[in-house]
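Structure in, sequence out. Go:
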């Protein structure tokens, strides 16, 4: 989904990312022309599904929120999402759907407001919810189903990588909560540097990029690391995940062609989780996805399993249940 934003004071939120049935803390607008917006709902009112459907039927794709209100919008959404995610009667698919909606809003915040301390703390809250879901449920097919309607390909990928990284860590017997949360936050933000690149480049499969485009694309781990490092409060482990998530054990990754021993243990996990999710989650650059077993096969046989052996084994064990269900 492409957004050509002209007015820097307004942020477009895809209607499909609005959580229905909740009180919205800010004014909602629709766009009339390049610089004209009209308020369609005042702060404090509830949205409902029919009303949102109605807008969609009128081919309105986005509701617009003032940039100065956006922090409040996310804060309230996170509170609402927190309540919904603890509901006993909701399945993982529905919970992930809501987590996808709120994550999409947080990624819009990163894009339009920047990597601020507030945005970073919003990401931490997303991670807490994702870790809790992985702890309680751990079912990957439900996760994939829940992410299907998420509007943004990068959000789908990032949330899935976060979730799969936690599943791998559980299998590796990583018990320390602080370590798991750092791993999950690095996984959620691993590709954040892509936001600095032209959207047309992100949507292209690497095999179709020119030499210059590949050079530019391969800068995203560095760009992401720069953004996080600028906050000065992000732990080194998270910075390492972002910078090293395209390295692999046989020294054929980028940007530094590191070999296994030199790669940060958390980056080893995220690198494999990211490759697995590239193969299994739809993206503009990759419309043809593989099943879980096909993806494991591709990594093992076609790619020659270039990732850390223990991490790959842990992913295989973590997915055994899903593979049995599919058989
Ligand atoms: Fe990446
Ligand atoms: Fe990635």
């Amino acid at each position: 989904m492409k957004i050509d934003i002209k007015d820097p004071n307004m942020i477009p939120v895809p209607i499909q990312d609005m959580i229905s049935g909740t009180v919205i803390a800010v004014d909602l607008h629709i766009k009339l022309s390049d610089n004209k917006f009209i308020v369609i709902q005042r702060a404090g009112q509830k949205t409902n599904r029919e009303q949102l459907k109605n807008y969609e039927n009128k081919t309105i794709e986005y509701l617009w929120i003032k940039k100065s209100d956006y922090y409040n919008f996310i804060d309230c959404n996170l509170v609402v999402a927190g309540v919904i995610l603890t509901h006993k009667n909701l399945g993982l698919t529905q919970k992930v759907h809501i987590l996808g909606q709120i994550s999409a809003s947080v990624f819009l915040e990163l894009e339009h407001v920047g990597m601020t301390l507030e945005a970073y703390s919003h990401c931490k809250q997303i991670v807490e919810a994702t870790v809790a879901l992985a702890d309680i449920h751990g079912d990957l097919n439900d996760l994939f189903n829940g992410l299907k309607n998420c509007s943004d390909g990068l959000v789908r990928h990032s949330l899935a990588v976060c979730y799969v990284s936690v599943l791998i860590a559980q299998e590796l017997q990583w018990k320390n909560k602080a370590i798991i949360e750092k791993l999950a936050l690095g996984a959620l933000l691993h590709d954040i540097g892509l936001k600095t690149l032209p959207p047309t480049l992100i949507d292209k499969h690497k095999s179709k990029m020119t030499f210059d485009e590949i050079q530019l694309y391969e800068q995203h781990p560095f760009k992401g690391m720069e953004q996080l490092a600028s906050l000065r409060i992000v732990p080194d482990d998270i910075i390492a995940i972002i910078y090293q998530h395209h390295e692999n054990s046989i020294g054929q990754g980028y940007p530094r062609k590191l070999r296994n021993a030199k790669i940060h243990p958390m980056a080893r996990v995220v690198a494999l989780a990211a490759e697995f999710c590239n193969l299994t989650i739809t993206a503009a650059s990759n419309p043809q996805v593989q099943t879980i077993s096909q993806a494991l096969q591709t990594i093992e046989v076609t790619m020659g399993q270039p990732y850390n052996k223990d991490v790959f084994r842990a992913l295989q064990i973590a997915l055994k249940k899903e593979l049995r269900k599919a058989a």
